[in-house]
Structure formats: C-alpha cells, structure tokens
Design a protein that fits this description.
- The protein is an alpha+beta fold.
- Helix 7 links the parallel strand 28 and strand 29.
- It contains 13 helices and 41 strands.
- Among the domains are: 23-112; 590-732, no CATH class.
- The chain starts with a helix and ends with a helix.
- It has a 39-stranded mixed sheet that branches. Strands 21-22 form a two-stranded antiparallel sheet.
Length: 733
C-alpha cells in the first residue's frame, strides 16, 4: 500500500514537472486578458490602440512568475501601424488568480518600422527641440528595436529601461540641404546613456565608419565621445563650397582623395551650442595643389602649380586651439622633394614652421643672380606667427646651400600683404657669375643701414631698367617712411663693370624716394652721380651724370659696340607724370638694328664705317620724352654725328604698339656738294659735315616682336630739321 502511494506521488510529481516544463517552453494560450491589456493601454494613451489575437502564458521557473506573451499584435498610433513581433510581461501568480493585471515589466520586440513613425510616438510622450529637429531632417530609414521597460504602479516608465536596436538605410537631409544617406548602425539606449556602434554611412560620396559613439545626458547638455573615420574617397569640393573659405578652395583645384581616423569628444547643450570640443585626427591626403605666380620667381621648373603629394597629417584640436603636424612630398613639375610642417593655434594667434629639403628642385633668386641647380642639396625653413588682426610675422626665413646662405629675420606683413618692417637680412652667396655677394641689412628704429663689402647688382640693375611692372620696389612696403644709408665697397653692374665705394643716403616718404644722393666711381676713376630731390611744389627732380656711360648703355642688348660717351639725364615727376631729357655726348656705336636697316639705303659712309669696324660716331644724342602710366610719348630724339644725323618722334605703349617717325640725313657727296654753294650752303647745311638738305624719311610701327619699317630714300629736309641742326651748330660754336 505504501509502495502504491509512493508510486502515485512520484507519478503526480512527474506529471507536474512535465506540465511545468511544457508551460515554461510552450505555454498555454488564452484570450482572457486581451481586453484588460487593451484597456490599460488605452487608458495610458488614447492615440495608442492595440489588438491582440491571443496571449500565451509561460512559466518562469526562476521566480515562479508567469510571463504573458503575444505575437504580431496590431499596434496603431494615430492610425499609423507599428509592426511588432512580440510583446511580453511578467505576471505574478496572485494577479493571474485575481484576474488583475499590474504590469511591472514589458518587453517589446519589433519588426522593421519607418523611423518617422517612431519619432512621432516618442514626441507624443517626450517632446523637445532635438526631437523636433530630428523629425525635420529624417527623410527615410527603417528601425528594429528590442526593449525592456519597467513600470511603476501608476504605469509610468522607470529609469532603468533598456532599448537595443538597429537602423538601416537612414537618410538625413540637413538644414543646409546636404544629404547623408545609407546610414546603418546599431544602438543601445539606457537612461541618460546612449551608445551607437558599428555605424556606416555615405556623405557626398564619402564612406564614413564609426566603431562607437557614446552620448551621456548630463543635466543641461549631452556629452559626446567616440570615433569616426572615412575610407579612402575622392571628394568633390564644389559640394562643400559653402563650408570652405576661398583660400582653401584655392589650394585644392581638383578632387581631393582623403582618408582619416578621428577620435572626438564634445558637449552639446539644449540650445544646440557646442563646447569642450576635443578632436584627434590622423589624415592621409593623396594630393594638394597650390597655384601662385610667386613661385615663378624662385623655382625655374614651375609652370602651373605646386603639388603636395602623399600628405600624412595629425591634428590635435582642443576647444578652439589646435596643432597640425604634417609631412609630404613637394612636386614642382616632376621634381620631387620632402617637406614637413607644423601649425599651432593658441587663442587668437597662429604659429607655423615649414621645412623644405630641396634636392631635386632648382631654386632661383633672380634679383641676386643666384641659382641652386638640381641634385644639389639645400634647405629652406620658414617660421613665424599669424595674428587674428591678419598681421603676419615671418620670424625666420633661412636658406642654406653648401656655404651659401640667406637669413631673414622678423618680417612683419599686414593684412594687405604689404611689408611693415624687416629687422635683418644677411646674404652670403657665390652667384652665377662666380662672384661673392655679401650684404647685411639692419633696422635701426625706423631707419635702415645696408652694408656690403662686395655685391653683384647685375640683376637688380636690370630689374630697375627693364621691369615691365608699374610702380617701384618700395610698393612692397606698407607706407615706408625711413632714412636708408647704403655703403658698398664694390658694386657690380654687370659681369665686368663695377663701382667702387658706393655711398648713398636715401629718404623714403610714403613708399616714394623723396631725396637721394649717390656718389661712386668706376675703376677708371670716372665719377657716377645720382641725385633725387623733391621741391616745395612736390616735383621730384632726378639727375644722373657720368663721363663713362658705357657700363649703363651696354645693358641695352640691341646696342652693339658702344664706346666712349658721357651721360646726362634729367627728369621732373609729379602726379604720376614724368618729363625727361636724356643726353649722350661723344660716343660711337657699331650696331642698332633698326638704324642699320636705314643706313643700308641712306649712307654709303655709314656702311663703310660699320665694315671697317670703326663704328658710327656721334657728337651728341638727345631724347625728350614724357611718361604717363604705360604710355611714353617721345617729343624728340635728335642725334648729331659726322656720318649721320637723326631726328624722330612718336610713342611707345607698355606691352603694346610702337610708333616712330623721323628723318635721317647721311653725309653723302650730294649733301657736301650743296653745302659748298656760297651763302646758301652755309644757311642750309652749315659749316659742319654731316648736315644736309637731302635725307631719308622713315616710319617704324608695330608691336615689339613685329616692327615694320618703311623708308622714303630721298626727301627735301623739313624746316624743323634744319632749324634743330642750326641750333646745335650754334651751341657747338
């Protein structure tokens, strides 16, 4: 009997265990609580409707509570369906027996739903500016959620909720109409703690990834911390034109190929203002291009732009201040060298340092007549400071090549890129003429002292004589007002010609030479004098005089075989108009191309002079002209010599048309015969050889590289020519 009772008890226990196992695994279905649950939800929110097919009751063996679970319920919020996989909740046994439902925990697992629908539901319970903006910018996307919500007795949600989910193909249209699309991510949401992970997206063809972004809700702000990177992508900068200033748009001409890894943290307050921004970035740029005609002055290989290739950059940004360090290859038309740089911003000031190792690139300092050839190792360092007032301080410019160096210290430049001051310039180089140039320029308060033992000014003189640029050298400065003292022991004007003991006192006012006194001597002890004075009428009077004109005249390459001669130059300048008079005395020359063509038709004696190598001798050359901006008007060019005399006038436009006309008179047999006529010959010709009634009328017209010359071989002289010749004869006598 006892045995039988034990068997029955064991059998009952087994049945109970089987039932409990079945209940915990498969559960039982019921419709008993459907209406109660729907009513409870409707009481909570009248816009939220839920239709349940049936509930399944499962036993939770751990706490012997029951779990109510429904699959695929129909949930509507304002007639918009929310697709739910399942809803479940724990139900104590006593609630099940009493048919009273007091929900303490709800678990919801959704299908993929439209994000816009979910945002509307959240805003119905907790609306704020962030959700309003989010609702405006979200245009598409699906969201799948698994959440666990604990409820208070009054049905309100406890703070220990947990939401886990995934977002697919999210599309955002930002306030500036830019679109971020194909956003995929996973997220985990707790009270005041939001985690985004495994994020990927596409923005303007840029592929973006993030391992983790964490957001902490801290009272009045949100604290962001995480990482973000972009895979190697080509960026069309035209799509970012609103975000980039014109300087950056000027640096990058074409598409930018970039990849980066970034760590960041910042705060965002509820007024959408950022603070405490910290960013650490590692950036790789394939190529940057920069175009500036200034490079033509220093790099002979430069044609269109400079390329900075294989850029490796690190950025440390801390709340407005930052430090950028980088290295790259600098490519000047195929000549590739190394460079590294650093840029720091501290408060309102920027500090920079650039180092260039120049081996494959040729470097040219034209004004110093100095070239560093390819395959010679050299270095260039630039460092300084840029202030918020747009003033630039180049604290150091240092170039080294073997024993040659150029050191410049403290160049201050204003916002208009004009030089305010330079503290010191030191140069020591062997130039292209194998001559040593050494110069030391020092600032003394507002004045400057320039001292040099030997200086090759060949290219500097060429720049002064032949520059096509309007203005003057001092236009580089910002309203320069200084006294400049120059002392040079030996100053070369060309490879073979030089001045000794060149001493100059110069006063600069408003970037213009107000007064200048220059005194020096050539090796033959002939003096060279230059004077500039400004009178009370603000007229600038310039005089140049030397009895040894050859070193200056030979600078003009089209004049061949110039010998002897004194030079006397006088000009008056006011209100950007200059009236000048240039005179040369007692000289001869072998060739002037345009003049030689005329001689072929006009002067057998002139041809003979050229063929014998004696050159054409002139007693005097005088040129009167005025200049306004780019137009030179030649009032008169008159040249008198025993073999030939010339009178001409016309104009020369800067980089434009040249138009000259005049008369050329050779000392031929016919003119000599006329000159022998008593009384009439003396009136028309004078007693000097080289003057005559018959000559050549000519015109020279065209552009500099395409001048056309027309000649009328025999012409009776104009009264002007005769009058001008008689004036010269009277002065000579």
């Amino acid at each position: 009997m006892v045995k039988r009772i034990i068997q029955i008890i064991l059998f009952l226990i087994l049945l109970i265990l089987i039932f409990l196992m079945y209940l915990s695994i498969y559960g039982v279905s019921t419709n008993k609580f459907n209406n109660l649950i729907s009513e409870k939800i409707s009481e909570r929110d009248k816009y939220l409707k839920i239709n349940l097919d049936e509930l399944k009751i499962f036993l939770n063996i751990n706490n012997f509570n029951f779990e109510l679970k429904t699959s695929n319920p129909k949930v509507f919020f304002k007639n918009k369906e929310i697709k739910i996989k399942s809803i479940s909740t724990d139900l104590p046994l006593k609630n099940l027996l009493s048919q009273k439902i007091n929900l303490k925990e709800v678990k919801i697992l959704t299908h993929k739903n439209k994000i816009q629908n979910l945002i509307e539901i959240i805003r119905a319970y907790k609306n704020n500016p962030q959700l309003y903006i989010l609702n405006k910018i979200v245009k598409d996307g699906l969201i799948e959620i698994e959440c666990k919500i604990n409820l208070n007795e009054d049905g309100s949600i406890k703070s220990n909720y947990l939401v886990d989910g995934n977002i697919e193909n999210l599309k955002l249209e930002l306030l500036n109409n830019n679109v971020i699309e194909k956003i995929n991510l996973s997220f985990l949401i707790k009270e005041k703690d939001y985690l985004i992970y495994n994020l990927s997206s596409l923005y303007q063809s840029i592929k973006i990834k993030s391992n983790q972004i964490r957001i902490i809700n801290d009272l009045d702000s949100y604290n962001f911390e995480g990482d973000i990177s972009n895979l190697k992508s080509k960026i069309d900068l035209s799509k970012f034109s609103a975000l980039l200033n014109k300087n950056i748009r000027g640096i990058v001409k074409d598409g930018l190929v970039i990849s980066s890894n970034n760590k960041f943290s910042f705060k965002l307050n509820k007024k959408i203002k950022f603070s405490d921004i910290i960013i650490q970035s590692k950036i790789s740029l394939e190529e940057l291009q920069y175009s500036n005609d200034l490079f033509k002055r220093f790099f002979p290989g430069y044609k269109k732009n400079v390329k900075f290739e294989n850029n490796s950059i690190t950025v440390d940004y801390n709340n407005g201040d930052y430090e950028i360090n980088g290295k790259s290859k600098i490519n000047i038309n195929g000549d590739i060298d190394d460079t590294n740089y650093s840029i720091k911003k501290i408060k309102k000031d920027f500090f920079y340092n650039f180092n260039f190792e120049l081996i494959n690139s040729a470097v040219n300092f034209k004004i110093l007549n100095y070239t560093k050839n390819k395959d010679d190792k050299s270095s260039l360092e630039l460092s300084g400071k840029y202030s918020a007032s747009n003033n630039i301080n180049l604290e150091k410019i240092k170039f080294n090549h073997n024993k040659n160096f150029i050191n410049i210290q403290n160049v201050k430049i204003n916002r208009n890129k004009k030089i305010k001051s330079i503290d010191n310039i030191k140069v020591s180089i062997f130039n292209n003429n194998d001559k040593l140039s050494k110069i030391d320029i020092k600032k003394n308060k507002k004045d400057y002292v320039i001292i040099s033992q030997i200086f090759d000014g060949t290219k500097l003189v060429d720049e002064i004589l032949f520059s096509k640029e309007e203005g003057n050298f001092f236009d580089l400065f910002d309203n320069l007002n200084s006294n400049i003292l120059i002392k040079i022991d030996t100053a070369y004007l060309s490879k073979d010609d030089y001045l000794k003991s060149l001493n100059t006192n110069m006063t600069i006012k408003n970037n213009q030479i107000n007064d200048l006194n220059l005194l020096s001597k050539f090796p033959n002890n002939e003096e060279f004098k230059v004077s500039i004075k400004t009178n009370q009428n603000k007229e600038k009077i310039t005089t140049v005089f030397t009895n040894y004109a050859k070193p200056l005249v030979k600078k003009y390459k089209f004049i061949k075989g110039f010998e002897g001669g004194a030079l006397d130059f006088y000009s008056v300048s006011k209100d950007k108009k200059t009236n000048s008079n240039l005179r040369l005395y007692d000289f001869k020359l072998n060739e002037v191309p345009a003049l030689t063509k005329l001689l072929t038709l006009a002067s057998l004696q002139g041809i003979a002079d050229l063929l014998t190598g004696e050159g054409i001798r002139f007693n005097e050359f005088e040129m009167k002209f005025d200049k306004v901006k780019g137009l030179m008007t030649i009032e008169e060019i008159y040249s008198l010599g025993p073999s030939i005399s010339v009178l001409m006038d016309g104009y020369v436009q800067k980089d434009g048309l040249i138009s000259l006309r005049g008369t050329l008179v050779p000392a031929t047999t016919i003119n000599k015969a006329i000159g022998s006529i008593p009384l009439l010959g003396e009136i028309l010709v004078g007693k000097k050889a080289g003057e005559g009634v018959f000559g050549v009328s000519f015109k020279i017209k065209g552009y500099p590289k395409d001048l056309k010359t027309s000649v009328n071989p025999i012409k009776t002289l104009t009264p002007r020519f005769i009058t001008r010749t008689l004036e010269k004869i009277k002065k000579a006598n």
